[in-house]
Amino acid sequence: MKSGGRRAGTVLLEFALVVPLFLLICLAGIDFARVFASAMAINGANRVGLEYAAQNPGTSAIPGIVAGDANLAGLQATAEQVCTCSAGGAWVACNTSCSGKMTYTQVTTTLPFKTAAAWPGVPDKLTLSISGFIRVQ
Question: Structurally, how many domains does the chain consist of?
Answer without folding.
Answer: 1
